Amino acid sequence: MRDNIGIVTTKRTVLRTGFGVVIGLxxxxxxxxxxxxxxxxKQTVEIHHRYVHQQEVITNLRRNLWxxxxxxxxxxxxxxxxxxxxxxxxxxKLEQETSGFFQEMRRLRHGDRAxxxxxxxxxxxFQVLRSSAAAGLDESQEYAFVxxxxxxxxxxxxxxxxxxxxxxxxxxxxxxxxxSATRRASLQRLLVLLGLGLLVGIMVTAFSLNYSENLxxxxxxxxxxVSRAKRDLEKLSARLMEIKEEERRRLSRExxxxxxxxxxxxxxxxxxxxxxxxxxxxxxxxxxxxxxxxAEQTVRTVRNITLLLRPxxxxxxxxxxxLQWQTEEFKRRTGVSCELTEIGLQEDLPxxxxxxxxxxxxxxxxxxxxxxxATKVQVKVEQTRNLLTVEVVDxxxxxxxxxxxxxxKEAAFGRLSFGILGMRERAASLGGKLHMFSSPGHGARVMLxxxxxxxxxxxxTARPAVASV
Length: 469
Fold this sequence. Notes:
Elements: H1 2-77, H2 83-108, H3 113-134, H4 139-280, H5 285-309, H6 312-316, H7 319-334, E1 337-343, H8 351-372, E2 376-383, E3 387-394, E4 403-404, H9 408-411, H10 418-429, E5 433-438, E6 444-451, H11 452-456
Parallel strand pairs: 1-2
Antiparallel strand pairs: 2-3, 3-6, 4-5, 5-6
């Protein structure tokens, strides 16, 4: 028994551990999936934002480069005397703005030498543009200055800008490839967790199904054993009641045939001796009279005992007269009105049925006498083709709590009385039902129902007893 308990405890521990592992893997997979999704979203936004920002800076630098050329062209075309001052102010403002763009570019492309080279080209271009303000060039020299000094530097800066733009595109491609590689690695890790969870889940499910099937088989086996034991107990109970009735019948017969007859003979002998003593021995008449009275009293006592054990009326005259005698005896003993009503009752009933009806009625009347405090009791016996019913109704105090018939199940555990348990077992032994209905202060009703096969078959003991309440 301890080994079985230990095995069950171990299996429960394994199941709980398995379910815990599955839940833990699912939780970990959920957290991992959330982190992967969050990381992917952040990386995607960061890559896109970085690329767009670099493109914006490159576009602004290209715009400033072309803007510087436009400012130089306007300077050369301007005929105002103070054009140099305006020109230098425009260049200074444009150079400051360009310097800010290069600071942002260095932050975005940290350690990239192309940015420094481009910055040097822009600085050289702005230096040449500033020198043009103090050169004092004529129209022919201005054109040559633009073509020889400004345009080459602008073209060189444009080439570096295109290189930076291509580098930005390559960086985007590399970032996307790294992002894809990271995503594949993360997905593989997530798939490993999910696969492990699925594997453990399958194992736990298989173990759970096997465990539940074993429990079902054990439960079915236990139920079969309990049902078999219940049937055996019911058969044993029915057999014990049958043996008890047979013993009562035998004892009643012996008391009636042996002791009562012996006492009757003793009484006759005493009467004969008393008649002789009246003429010859007057002095012993009183002693013989007392002996005769004692013999008569003993005969009555023995007859009462035989009636209580098993009335000869039940065997000699049948169920109806036996019930009539029982109700009259109850009325004589208690002074309570008791009426018997018979409807369709036949006398060719099986012996077990007659005994069952008689004993159930006897116990019900005994309960009325002992507990009910009733003023009126009614006994009704009705037999139809398919059913024999017996009802014992009183107007007494009833039970302390309501009964609706189903509470008879508690009688099987001795919560009501052993008498009610005996009635229930007698009914169950014949495949019948026993119902009890009562409420405090409103009396009680005991009803016995025996099916048609019970009241027509003599092979009752060959059929398994089934209790139905």
